[in-house]
Design brief:
single chain; about 230 residues; mainly alpha; Four Helix Bundle (Hemerythrin (Met), subunit A)
Length: about 230
């Protein structure tokens, strides 16, 4: 009898799988809305409203929102969660981090890229081109994110993947106003085209150079359209 009790005490606790899955669903949905600019700086994300929308308790929603806070997408306040306010200095620092991380990461990903991923890059690029022709900013943003996610999936370092995604998303949140500009659309399309060519040829040097230029052009365009420093 004592042996049976001992065995029982050693059994691992069962994971609340449904709640974990729901929290992940909420996290992904809110993050997507932030990427698209559907949650604006003056908006407040309230856990009970999100819980009502997903027809669930507040606990998985709180888990998702706190995860977004931890990753820098949101800031907690006494009246809900809001988009963080980033200064020009913050933006320049984020662009600097992107220049340090993304070119070498993308160049390294070329060797690991599968044919399926290459096809996905092509689809994302074609989607972006169609959006450009229609002047469809939302679809262009989605296509750009899809393109980035594909090559990032080929990066072997999971922590590096996560860091690049966060920095790129944080910049995009404040760049949404400039992304509506037609000249910015052209920068996105041209950058994707050169990167796609580099990935197709598995040319790390070309990818590195293209990514550096893409980030530099995005930073220059952002500050040019907003009139420079704060």
């Amino acid at each position: 009898m004592s042996d049976e009790v001992a065995k029982e005490t050693k059994l691992p606790r069962r994971t609340a799988l449904k709640q974990t899955t729901l929290s992940e669903t909420v996290y992904q949905e809110i993050r997507t809305r932030l990427q698209r600019g559907e949650i604006e700086p003056n908006d407040r994300v309230l856990d009970y409203e999100v819980a009502e929308e997903f027809d669930c308790t507040r606990m998985p929603v709180r888990q998702a929102l706190l995860r977004l806070v931890n990753e820098g997408y949101l800031v907690g306040t006494t009246r809900g969660f809001v988009v963080p306010t980033l200064t020009s200095s913050d933006i320049r620092e984020i662009f600097e981090m992107r220049r340090l991380l993304e070119p070498s990461a993308a160049a390294g990903a070329a060797a690991n890229l599968t044919e399926k991923q290459e096809a996905a890059l092509n689809r994302a690029y074609r989607k972006a081109c169609k959006a450009y022709d229609k002047n469809d900013t939302v679809t262009l943003i989605d296509a750009n994110i899809e393109f980035r996610d594909v090559w990032l999936d080929a990066v072997q370092n999971a922590r590096l993947q996560s860091m690049i995604r966060r920095f790129a998303d944080h910049v995009q949140q404040v760049r949404l106003s400039t992304l509506k500009n037609r000249s910015t659309h052209k920068i996105v399309i041209d950058g994707m085209q050169v990167l796609l060519d580099g990935f197709t040829k598995r040319d790390p040097k070309k990818i590195n150079a293209a990514m550096l230029e893409f980030i530099a052009n995005a930073e220059e365009q952002y500050f040019a359209l907003l009139g420079g420093e704060d």
